[in-house]
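Example protein as discussed:

>
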Amino acid sequence: MNKEKTNKLDRKLQKKLLLQMRDVYPDCLEYREDHPDKRNPEIIFNLAYLEEHGLCTDAIRYPEIETWSPRITAKGIDFLEEDGGLQSILGIVTVRLEADTLRQLIEKRITDSDKTEDEKSKIKHLLTTIPDKALSASVNSLFSQAFPHLPYENIVEWLRALSGL
């Protein structure tokens, strides 16, 4: 067994490996004993990394095993797709703003307001006394109430900006 180790992540190599696996999908790549890359520590390292992220399976990292056969997963294929593949369509995205982030956003709004410095200071202090759960619940309520009142054109522009159109 080659004792040489590497810890180099190589994005170009990772993409090349994923593309090779995609090209033979649903089959897998086969690294037999006589394959020139069988003992390449950089390939072994990057395949192990891809496997740990769920982009491929069976990326055996032990060259002493006669044959190992990495196979791309659906997640790996979706990763290669420009539109994110089916995962972007089927996946549910949960957006959660931490209380500290909410406080920072609100504090910036207070700072940017035309209130006096004394009023701003009092409101900012009040903001620090609100429990995290109450702050989160009130922001969810605020969003739920405000969203239906946004002009249709603003929503369309926002969607176009998100989609890159």
